[in-house]
Amino acid sequence: MSAILCTKTTDTTPHASGDGSGRETMQAMRRLAFAAFIWLAAAGVQAAPPDPIEFGITVERGDTRTVKRWLDEGLDPEFQADRVGSGLMIAAWNGDIPMMTLFTERGANPRRVNRNGEQALLLAAWNGHLDAVKWLLEHGAALNRDDQQWSALHYAVFNGQEKVARYLIERGAQVNARSPNLSTPLILAAREGREDLAKVLLESGADPKAKNDWGDSALTMAMRYDHLRLGKMISSPEEFAIAVKAPKESFGTASRSAAAPNDIDQLLRQLRQAQAEGKQTDELRQKFYAAVDAFRKASTPSPQASRRPFPRPQTPGTLVITARRGQVGERAELVAAGGPPSGKAETTPAARTASGPSTPGEVADLLREIRIASVQGRSTDELRRRLNDAIDRLPK
After folding, report:
1. pLDDT of residue 289
2. The CATH number fitting domain 52-257, selected from 1.25.40.20, 3.60.21.10, 3.30.950.10, 2.60.40.10
3. pLDDT per residue over 102-112, tens digit each?
4. For residue 308, what are the β-bridge partners?
5. Residue 377 and residue 382: Cα distance in Å, rounded?
6. According to the model, what pLDDT value does residue 366 have?
7. What is the rounded distance in angstroms from the CA atom of residue 294 to the CA atom of residue 7?
8. Model-level pTM?
9. In the predicted model, what is the mean pLDDT of the chain?
10. For 47-61, 196-210, 244-258, which range has the lowest pLDDT when averaged over its residues?
11. What Å distances lie between residue 167 and 94, 128, 162, 163, 210, CA to CA?
12. What PROSITE patterns does the record tag this protein with (predicted)?
């Protein structure tokens, strides 16, 4: 390279035209060599990566200019924020297609998973971002995943995103896909009382007799959570007649307190939108805090009853999986090879107590994690502590 830079400009090569084209060619080569030299020099001095918290907030706010600068300075496109996961995952969570485009153009993989085993498509489906779901599927996201993993259809059904669920089914989503504890989308629909979605799933071939790893069927969930009309819809007349005569406690104890009220989710979305547009948020914040106070009071965990041990079923995988059995007081835990036991989560940026102000997006993410942990039967104590901390750190 240095030899090229030091080459004299005298053109000794004969040319037919004699119009100086050789000199122009040599000058172009010098410019190209100089540009390569500058690029190599810049590559050797890479800027320090941003703080994970700062990175997450910047992506959440849709600040593509700052994110582009970080990427131009050499930031890994798979860089992880303190919560949710990579920049692409946060953008999918917010339905921010320009931000998703930026990350994928720089090499971000739509199929990468975060510490919860979630992909970007699942996060977009959870929040009902249909356009983002379509975009991700067009750019390599997995419509269906290997057995015993959460799918986008699971998430759309669980959070009541009917338009997204219908679209995923139209695209060929497996309606009998199994989650880590073997729950199908129909079992989740029955748990949450989502009649319209349950009907769509049944019409698309969902198996109403499928059971999770502790024997809970969609009918069991419907009866446990008092969704009698849904229970009648998904069962035969004989099965439903037996179910309504059975003692309530035979279906297990409902854990409603883990689910965030819809008004909190709606207010969080409105807050994020208002912040992105630079609008006044005082009134929204007052409503949000009132809803959060009600949630905190309703979700205070009661002392747990003593639980007797139960044999561990054989389930492959690398996730910590727990599940609640139909009988009151029973609980079992699966700890796959290489994973930490329940209550001893891996040390990750998201698991540490954060400092500085939080964002509505952080609160929404924790509420989602609480709901997912609840449906798997996992303890939510640490997640609730982090939720309370995040709420306390929200700017007043």
Report:
1. 80
2. 1.25.40.20
3. 999 999 999 99
4. 330
5. 14
6. 87
7. 76
8. 0.70
9. 78
10. 244-258
11. 19, 11, 9, 6, 23
12. ANK_REP_REGION, ANK_REPEAT
Among 20-29, 185-194, 337-346, the range with the most confident prediction by mean pLDDT is 185-194
The tokens for 194 are 């989502």
SS3 (DSSP) at 65: helix
Query: Residue 11 is encoded by which pair of tokens?
Result: 């053109």
Long-range CB contacts (within 8 A, 24+) of 221-227: 221/187, 221/190, 221/191, 222/190, 222/191, 222/193, 223/251, 224/191, 224/251, 224/252, 224/253, 224/254, 224/326, 225/190, 225/191, 225/192, 225/193, 225/254, 225/256, 226/254, 227/190, 227/193, 227/195
Q: How far is the C-alpha of 72 from the C-alpha of 54, rounded, in Å? A: 17
Contact (CB, 8 A) for 181 and 117? no
Q: For the chain, which residues make up each domain, given as ranges?
A: 2-44, 52-257, 259-301+314-392
In the predicted model, is pLDDT for residue 323 greater than 60? no
Q: Which amino acid is at 143?
A: L
Return the exposure string of 351-364: e unless at least 16 CB atoms fall within 10 Å of the residue's CB, then b.
eeebeeebbbbbbb
> What are the structure tokens assigned to 299, written together?
């979700």
Three-class SS of 177-244 = CCCCCCCCHHHHHHHHCCHHHHHHHHHCCCCCCCECCCCCEHHHHHHHCCCHHHHHHCCCHHHHHHHH
Between the alpha carbon of residue 376 and those of residues 47, 86, 166, the distances in Å are 41, 24, 24
Mean local confidence (pLDDT), 36-40: 54
Contact present, 121 and 152 (Cβ < 8 Å): yes
Helix, strand, or coil here: 331?
strand
